[in-house]
Design brief:
The chain is of the alpha+beta class and about 325 residues long. The chain has seven helices and 21 strands. The strands form five sheets. The chain has an eight-stranded mixed beta sheet with strand order 3-4-5-8-9-10-11-12.
Length: about 325
């Protein structure tokens, strides 16, 4: 029933899309499909790009043959400043449409508003770098890559620059993005904070509502450190974040399901959940994934950590 409602809401959002004005007299639909992608306007010169459309929506859906399928849609974001335009992440490698590369190129080209194009990645997983081939031969694009995930990378072309915690991406005209290292899901995961807009693009670093996946004991310990680093940034008055407006834009937005948005309470719930895990009091449900190690969903409030029950017990005994 939930998936039918999601599909209905998806279609309704497209049906009621209206035109809004962006900078430099550009006009864009609030929600528009371009090939296999759906593009939504978040705020002036900030867009959300999902690798799904009305014929193949995010999550579970019924295909044309009446069979249930799943599209674990992966999300990208575009932020355009006065001098540069930044594409955050490169989604899944789309095989189900023959115009994916051309469509993504068009989306970025149009919304870059003629500015220098830059691509960055939240973390080095295939569902976030899958469409690199669409841009790999474009010599006009540069890359900013999280150091601890990409230091030995050979698939991204030059020019590429490694970024880390504390790096600042300047897109010109006062459009600044702070880089916050939130390791755990991967060793180098970065959350990108759009300065002055109470918006953070978090990839899979803290999950997208369906749970952050942690793949080892070392990864879990890293996650506790990374989460503390994110909280420190959010709570620092110097960063001028309005915590009541703060929104995390995750790497798989559809996974938040009934949650209106990922907000400050989601972050606080994550912290409490790690405290409960350390105390051995966290609620959990058995979980089965394609990876046998991930066998438990630990929960508190709106937060879920998908991890390993046996390692969680070792964590308590080691405290």
């Amino acid at each position: 029933m939930r998936n039918r409602l999601l599909s209905f809401a998806w279609g309704a959002a497209i049906a009621v899309a209206s035109l809004v004005s962006c900078s430099e007299s550009q006009q864009y639909a609030e929600t528009v499909e371009v090939g296999p992608y759906t593009v939504s306007l978040i705020s002036p010169n900030v867009w959300h790009v999902e690798d799904c459309n009305s014929s193949r929506p995010a999550g579970n859906f019924m295909n044309a043959e009446g069979k249930m399928q799943n599209n674990n849609c992966s999300d990208m974001y575009i932020v355009t400043g006065k001098e540069k335009s930044l594409l955050i992440d490169l989604s899944n490698d789309i095989k189900w449409a023959d115009n994916a590369a051309e469509s993504l190129q068009q989306i970025f080209e149009e919304r870059s508003l003629g500015k220098q194009k830059v691509i960055t990645i939240t973390h080095n997983h295939g569902d976030h770098v899958g469409m690199l081939h669409a841009f790999k031969d474009n010599e006009g694009i540069s890359y900013l890559l999280p150091e601890d995930d990409f230091a030995r990378d050979t698939k991204f072309p030059q020019p590429k620059t490694l970024i880390n915690d504390g790096s600042v991406i300047d897109l010109g005209g006062g459009v600044l993005i702070d880089c916050i290292k939130v390791q755990g899901h991967t060793p180098g995961s970065i959350v990108f904070s759009l300065r002055g807009k109470d918006a953070m693009f978090s990839g899979d670093a803290i999950g997208s509502g369906g749970g952050v996946w942690i793949f080892s004991m070392a990864g879990y310990r890293q996650y506790v450190e990374g989460l503390a680093n994110l909280v420190k940034f959010v709570d620092d008055p110097a960063n001028k974040i309005d915590q009541q407006k703060l929104t995390f834009y995750g790497g798989h937005d559809w996974q938040k399901l009934d949650m209106p948005r990922l907000d400050i309470q989601y972050l606080r719930d994550m912290v409490t959940l790690t405290e409960n895990l350390a105390a051995g009091t966290a609620d959990y449900e058995p979980y089965r994934a394609f990876m046998g190690y991930l066998n438990a969903n630990f929960k508190y409030g709106s937060a879920t950590i998908t991890w390993n029950k046996e390692d969680s017990e070792k964590l308590v005994s080691a405290e």
